[in-house]
Amino acid sequence: ETVIPLSIQIDGFFLVSQAVEVLPGQEGAAQRVPISDGDRSDRAYLPGTSLKGALRGQAMRIWRTVSGNTNKNDIPEAVKWLFGSTDYAGRLKVSDFVAERRRAPKQVEMVAIDRFTGGASHGAKFSVLAHESPCLTGNLSIDDFEVSTETRDQALGLLVLLLRDLDEGDIPLG
Q1: Is the four-CA dihedral 10, 6, 17, 50 of positive or negative sign?
Q2: Residue 6: strand, helix, or coil
Q3: pLDDT per residue over 136-164, tens digit each?
Q4: Going by fewer Cβ within 10 Å, which terminus of the chain is more open, N or C?
Q5: Using H for helix, E for strand and C for coil, what is the string for 56-110?
């Protein structure tokens, strides 16, 4: 198994959230709060499954761009090798990513955008609790697996491109 320690610096506010019920008399309360895992309620937290899904989506975008194949049902062996398929488990494991520093989230005011007009939706102002510019740390690990050299090399090349895109901020998170 190969382990790759990774730090992700988020620029701006970061939120992976869960909805909360705002009771009468609590109109100023946040309507979405950061998810937490045990004692991590005051740390920014990104579940490994969320990051793995974002990486898989980007891997498919890269593959469709390079190959010219726009069929969304056609999944290349390199992507299956990394992320898995119905035939076998993927070799890439992604840990949960957590901010090292404990910092209370800040309340941020937001407005919902009407997707048809591009303007603010009527009465759709809401607030969220979000972490400001956290640095998240975790690990990626790759299990050894017998596969053709060509597929493995393609998968590892794809992983390098994914890490580059993650570093450049081209993969949306949160």
Answers
A1: positive
A2: strand
A3: 999 999 987 666 788 888 998 999 999 99
A4: N
A5: HHHHHHHHHHHHCCCCCCCCCHHHHHHHECCCCECCEEECCEEECCCCCCEEEEE
Distance CA 17, CA 136 (A): 16
165's CB contacts (< 8 A; 6+ apart) are 58, 62, 171
Q: For 74-104, what is each residue's pLDDT tens digit?
A: 899 999 999 998 888 889 999 999 988 888 8
158's enclosing H/E stretch is helix 149-167
What are the distances in angstroms from CA 80 to CA 10, 56, 134? 28, 10, 31
Does an H or E element contain 137, and which?
A: strand 135-142
Q: What percent of the chain stands above pLDDT 70? A: 83
The Cα-based distances of 69 to 60, 66, 73, 154, 172 in angstroms read 10, 8, 10, 16, 23
- Residue 152's CB: how many other CB atoms inside 10 A? 19
Residue 98 amino acid letter: V
